[in-house]
Amino acid sequence: MGNFLDDLKTARYAPVAIRQRFRIEYDEAREDAYAFFESTDDGTFYRKQIFQYLPSAGRLRIYYCGNKRSVWYHYEFAEQERKLKNTLFFVDKDLDDFTGHALPCRSRVFVTDLYAVENYLCTEETLTSVLEELIFLPDEQNRHSRILKEFTDGFNDIASQLRPLFAEIILLRQLNANISFSDFGDSLSPCFEMVELKPGPVSDWDKIFRTRCKYDPSSLSSADIREKADWLAEKPHHEWMRGKFALWFFLRFVGELWGSLVGELINDRKKIKKTVDMQSDNVFLIMQGRHPLPRGLEQFITNNICQDQNSMSVQF
After folding, report:
1. 2 pLDDT tier (thresholds 50, 70, 90)
2. So what's the pLDDT on residue 13?
3. Tell me: the pLDDT tens digits for 87-121?
């Protein structure tokens, strides 16, 4: 049964299935919007914003493509078919702009300004929303500020540890090496552990990291690695750190923090409770509308959806 269900999930990402469904559903005369995403997480991340600008008579039709290459493929397909009206295509930046492999600029393809959508969740703004709207922690004696500082310091620590290895990856990808993070899944746990809200590397973590990514930096000079790492140090962490790694830290920090606060009095009557178990498979839904958005997103959506100015939809 497991294999059958896996086959069904894989089939819906198959280009031929997506292409056929798009052909059937596309109607230029309607006010529908057609959005193509890499994954369901991306769809959850963007969907609320798209709905805000969808005409009242319109319907949002969503296509999950599985990866960036497939999103681009379907953009080219829609362009070839001359079915671009009201279409939107969303992809993550990843390291492409650092390695010389950025996608060509197209008005209907939106690329994140940070590494990926996960990076927009690992922020002080999002953590503040958790403290105020989910944990309901009173901000007494600057507790929120102290927690935010702990969070930022921890994230900076992980970034400083990872920076030289991402420098290696960027240099190797510039040489067209095929380096994948797929063996990590959603977690940095093979390389880091959290102790009292502080991240720390495990023994031989850098060797584990390279082994999981299946690359050998021996062809690179230490001087080139240092130079690239210093260059990355001048960039915001979220522009080069893999989004799933950033999200791992955010989820571990929130999980440990919330657990430590359970039972604490909010007021004379109420105590803090753990009302939700935030994980990588539900965090986008839980935090929808509680995180910063990519730069230029609103303009991109309004430019590519033909709006009914007299009646805006408020579907959610």
Report:
1. low
2. 64
3. 999 999 999 999 999 989 999 999 999 999 999 99
Q: Evaluate whether residue 309 is within a structural domain.
A: no
Reading phi first (left if > 0) and then psi (alpha if -120 to 50, else beta), residue 262 is in beta
Tokens in use for 176? 């067209």
Rounded-to-integer distance, Cα 78 and Cα 86, Å: 11
Token digits of residue 18: 């997506």
DSSP-based helix, strand, coil % in the chain, nearest 5: 55, 10, 40
Domain that holds residue 64: 2-113+294-304
| Cβ(286)–Cβ(278) below 8 Å | yes
Give the model's pLDDT for residue 303. 94
Q: Is 165 in contact with 155 (CB distance < 8 Å)? A: no
Q: Measured between alpha carbons, how far is 290 from 286 in angstroms, rounded to an integer?
A: 9
In angstroms, the CA 305 to CA 49 distance is 12
Same domain as 91, residue 134:
no
Reported as type and span, the H/E element at residue 209 is: helix 205-213
Give CA–CA dist 239/236, Å, rounded.
Answer: 6
Torsion of CA 172, 174, 178, 182, to 10 degrees: 80
Which string of b and e fits 125-143 if b means at least 16 CB within 10 Å? ebbbbbbeebbebeeeeee
Task: Return the pLDDT at 315.
Answer: 44
> Sign of dihedral through CA atoms 3, 4, 7, 12?
negative
**Is residue 32, in this structure, part of any structural domain at all?**
yes
Can you give the pLDDT at residue 265?
87
Predicted confidence (pLDDT) at residue 182 exceeds the cutoff of 90: no
**What confidence score (pLDDT) does residue 10 get?**
54
Q: Are residues 219 and 123 in the same domain?
A: yes
Token couple for 192: 């880091």
pLDDT above 80 for 306 = no
